[in-house]
Amino acid sequence: MDARSPEAPGGRALRDVAENLFQELQEHFQALTATLNLRMEEMGGRIEDLQKNVNDLMAQAGIDSPAQKH
After folding, report:
1. Which stretch is the leader sequence (predicted)?
2. CA proximity to 41, closest of 51, 30, 33
3. Which of 5, 15, 33, 51 has its CA 20 to 30 A from that of 23?
């Protein structure tokens, strides 16, 4: 008997366990992806703030910022 057939002893239970495991892994992956996206957005905002602060400091010091030269 093929282990993949529904009549195989434990075949359905094994498939159900595998499907449940896959579902859990997929949920964890989606949660991780959402967390990473949020953190990347936060980091992008922090980098933009840092760039603005550096440009402001350079302007106060009378130094042309590289962005102004282009």
Report:
1. none
2. 33
3. 5
- CA dist 42 and 39 (Å) reads 5
Contact 48, 36 (CB under 8 A): no
Question: Residue 64: which residues within 8 A CB-CB, separation 6 or more?
Answer: 58
DSSP 1: -
CB count in 10 Å sphere of residue 11: 15
pTM: 0.60
**What six digits make up the tokens of 12?**
């359905």
DSSP, collapsed to helix, strand or coil, labels residue 11 as: helix
